Amino acid sequence: MRHVYVHVPFCRRRCVYCDFSIAVRREVPAARFVAALRREIDLRISGGLTLDEALDTIYIGGGTPSLLPPESIAEIVRLVRDAAGGRLAADAEITLEANPEDVTPDVAEAWVSGGVNRVSLGAQSFQASVLEWMHRPHGADATARAVRALRQEGIHAISLDLIFGVPDDAGADFAADLDRAVALAPEHLSVYGLTVEPRTPLGRRVTRQTVTPAPDERQAEEFLLAHDRLSSAGLEHYEVSNYASRGARSRHNSAYWILRSYLGLGPAAHSFGGGVRSWNVGPWAAYERAVAGGFDPTEGREVLTAEQARLERAYLGLRTADGADLGDLAWPSAAGSRALAAGWLSLQGDRVRLTPAGWLRLDSLAQALTTGTRSG
Fold first, then answer.
1. DSSP code of 140?
2. 49-53, 202-206, 244-248: lowest mean pLDDT where?
3. Which one is the CATH code of 3-257: 3.40.50.410, 3.40.50.720, 3.20.20.70, 3.40.50.300?
């Protein structure tokens, strides 16, 4: 267990597409959150949790963790480190998710003092009309200012999030967003297609037919545009939604994709280890009540069968540039031969790797390649 995720649920507002477990608060109860997190850690340890290896990654996500004061961020890092007996790898990756408008030189300096060495900025777009449509709280120039402040204070592992496939009525120009992002020279970029989830403001607008989602053809065009533009800029497309400069892959997220054990702390946080996945109760108030009363905040757990583990390894492998092991696939198969001929995948040794065109068909290809009938 060398990877820890901490979920900070608080946000200023709910973005139009968001279905995460968040708590919209004008005033963020930072001290109460840190106290609740401390109680959960104590409960986990008294229940038998042992973090007996040096931690390789800590990821503080959300929500909007940058709404917490810097001293609370530093305290979270200390709590997690102390839970591991003070063992932290010398090159540990400690990531904080942040909204661009929260970043100033003083705040960035305090984050660095508190142990943060990587920041993931929720840019989403560089266009005022799109940010307003998304209900994002920052302006079009905030991301560039945030990047400058982070670099000034010595943070040289910066990731940007971008969203493509925005409906036409938002006035989006995704090519321009890519150009603005590349100009900032981030070490890492996460590029996500807009997904319409039913219980979101966007989902309700689509149901009422006041918003028409971007057609699949444009989603595909923008996905491939990102691949071409970012690859030309020297970034490796190493996972279906992620790009990195040399040596700058997200080590924390990469641990998920190869099924490493990880501990999740905070409301709605997930944990995994020994073939068991568990998750905490989602709402902030319910989580706080549980740990304050000395109760385990775990809401559910799932024990993976050998077959489930195989399917998960295959799917997660196909998401990445490293590919999936042939032993986890129905290979050779008619479906695999068709995908190979279409240019959707390549076979390299004992690995099957999807191409960008294959990633556009990830779900259907993963199903065909794992549940099809072997041939030959």
1. T
2. 49-53
3. 3.20.20.70
